[in-house]
Design the sequence.
């Protein structure tokens, strides 16, 4: 039997290690096939380590039982064990590859559940909360309590842009009419203001800024056609909820807590060592332990940091799941695709939110962001900024 066939056998065993975590294990197997295993080159080494790790995890599962042994953390441990030997089978892998893989598995696992909840955000199976119930918990207990960590205040430096087709328009043309169709955040009959958003002007090409390019993508612009851009000025700072996590990794969000912990430890160590007699003083370990306890009581853990990290991890998972490119043209299909967005925007409006920053789903060339304002009078077009453009 060839080494390639042996790898396939072990990958099949990997996927069958747990019924409870089959979805995540299949995803891991897919990534090994795609990114790690090079048929005919490193097959023998990949087979060797897969076989060893599969044997250990299979034995533990048999002894403890699938219900007790296999959790999402167990899948992460599998990845960590496999990563330890990467120097033997793929020494050229990026140093952050396996950390990113763990994040991706966690996001995929969450998406598997969130996608089901997102289809009907009021619905919940027995024993589970609905999507809207969970979101309300996070919003009430964290997001709305620590607004400075989740909300953006619009200011004069923000770049807000909108596009319409054709030339020769006055600024009034860029103010949207009441929608007759279903859009991402508003149902028919509601009038929201959609704009591309960035905190500073950035160039995409010699002729286009990133904001303008995002506008064209969101508008589904056609090459060869004429379009007009107009920038907007925010009239109200507003409570703008940032639901765009496409420019930050899950690891970075997790590290909010770790960075805080390391900073706190460093401050305590610096304070202890500031005593010129620290070396002699702390030969007595009981004295060291007592002083550490005193410092910890003087500097309690900031619960806001933990709440921020966990809330943002949840929002990252949600945003990674719900923002997908939608090309439906039939209104009944668009209504289904956007139904949960409409409910969520109405919920946020009821909580005093004025708008949402959300990612552009039309292109992967750049990390683009959009802004939807629930009140179209919270920003106004700047007539002098109108720019006519032929999309070539």
Sequence:
């Amino acid at each position: 039997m060839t080494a390639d066939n042996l790898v396939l056998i072990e990958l099949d065993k990997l996927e069958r290690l747990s019924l409870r975590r089959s979805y995540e294990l299949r995803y891991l197997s897919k990534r090994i096939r795609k990114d790690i295993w090079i048929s005919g080159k490193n097959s023998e080494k990949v087979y060797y380590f897969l076989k060893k790790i599969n044997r250990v995890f299979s034995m533990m599962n048999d002894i403890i039982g699938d219900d007790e042994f296999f959790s999402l953390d167990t899948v992460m441990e599998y990845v960590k064990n496999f990563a330890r030997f990467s120097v033997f089978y793929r020494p050229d892998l990026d140093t952050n590859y396996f950390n990113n893989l763990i994040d991706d598995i966690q996001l995929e696992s969450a998406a598997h559940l969130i996608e089901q909840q997102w289809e009907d955000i009021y619905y919940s199976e027995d024993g589970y909360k609905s999507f809207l119930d969970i979101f309300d918990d996070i919003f009430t207990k964290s997001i709305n309590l620590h607004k400075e960590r989740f909300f953006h205040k619009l200011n004069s430096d923000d770049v807000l842009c909108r596009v319409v087709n054709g030339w020769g328009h006055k600024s009034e043309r860029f103010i949207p009419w009441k929608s007759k169709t279903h859009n991402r955040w508003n149902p028919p009959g509601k009038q929201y203001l959609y704009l591309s958003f960035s905190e500073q002007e950035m160039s995409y090409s010699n002729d286009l800024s990133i904001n303008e390019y995002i506008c064209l993508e969101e508008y589904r612009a056609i090459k060869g056609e004429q379009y007009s851009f107009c920038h907007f000025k925010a009239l109200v700072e507003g409570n703008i909820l940032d639901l765009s996590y496409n420019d930050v990794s899950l690891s970075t969000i997790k590290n909010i807590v770790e960075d805080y912990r390391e900073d706190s430890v460093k401050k305590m160590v610096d304070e202890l060592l500031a005593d010129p007699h620290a070396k002699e003083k702390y030969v007595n370990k009981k004295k060291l332990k007592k002083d550490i306890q005193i410092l910890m009581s003087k500097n309690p853990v900031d619960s806001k940091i933990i709440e921020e990290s966990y809330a943002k991890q949840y929002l990252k998972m949600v945003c990674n799941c719900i923002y997908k490119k939608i090309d439906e043209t039939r209104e009944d299909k668009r209504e289904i695709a956007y139904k949960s967005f409409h409910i969520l925007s109405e919920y946020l409006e009821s909580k005093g939110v004025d708008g949402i920053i959300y990612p552009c789903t039309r292109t992967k060339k750049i990390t683009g962001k959009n802004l939807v304002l629930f009140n179209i009078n919270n920003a106004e077009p700047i007539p002098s900024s109108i720019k006519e453009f032929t999309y070539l």
The longest helix spans residues 250-273. The mean pLDDT is 92. The radius of gyration is 26 Å.
